[in-house]
Structure of LysR family transcriptional regulator:
Amino acid sequence: MKLSHFRHVVAVSEQGSLRAAARHLNVEQSAISRSIRELENELGTPLFERHGRGAIPTKVGESFVNRAIHILNEVRRASDEVEQVRGGYTGKVVVGLSTVAHIVLLPKLLEPYRRRYPDVQLDVVEGLFPSLQSSILAGSIDFYIGPPPEYSIPPEMSQEKLFDNTRQVVARKGHPLSQATSLAELSEAKWVTTSITAKPEEELRELFAAHGLPPPKLALRAHSALTLIVSVAYSDLLAMAPSQIVEFPLISHAVVAVPVVEVLPAPPIVLVQRFGLHLTPAAELFADFARRVALQRYRQG
């Protein structure tokens, strides 16, 4: 097997057809066809089911593609590490960051990191652990920083807590309930829920129930921080969001924290990576900068 075989089979899987894979890799379609045929002959089994509109991996093909992705990621990482150990500043670092990680960590570490590795390509993927888990396991993402999943992480991964966190009720500036001091005063309001957990509406219901209040009225489910911020800033909807939202300069002009007396717990912010994944110097430095910023924030209370 050659690395070109792995690249071709992954491209066909991701692009959905041999023609699209050839266009994506800028090679002749005949080269893709030859690679797939050689692999299937060597393995003694079909890797794709061909049909009029393209190609779909077989069960064996799915397993092979997953392994091929892992191999290509390791090859890319090995090449980057050799260059960086030799004193070079090129390569690629892929990190998954939640909204809180974007707001708390990235502004303080980005410029120092860029000064150290000005020519390293940073690939920042916004998301939460459940949507990024498969990419972390495959090595496509070096590590993830954000709230942990509500379930235990897989045994193939390690988890390191960076700092604890809290949440606040968030409203637009000028909201008629912006000066409320208890959840009871918000019982008639309508809410935006997030997608941090599998059943985000349960978070609000459990919180209200714990204080002897009826279930809140849920009006919108946000699958991104941008949706949540826009929904709150341009309507009378309320949200329970990480405390950092109202501290962020790009957002603070539009929303305020409602000063309720109840404590609103939030999951901690953690760093998750795959066991046995040896980070390149550039990736390790990014993680180390994130630890330093988190430690400074923790010391500041």
Q: What stands out?
A: The radius of gyration is 23 Å. The longest helix spans residues 59-85. The chain has three domains: 3-77, 89-163+268-299, 166-266. The chain has eleven helices and eleven strands.
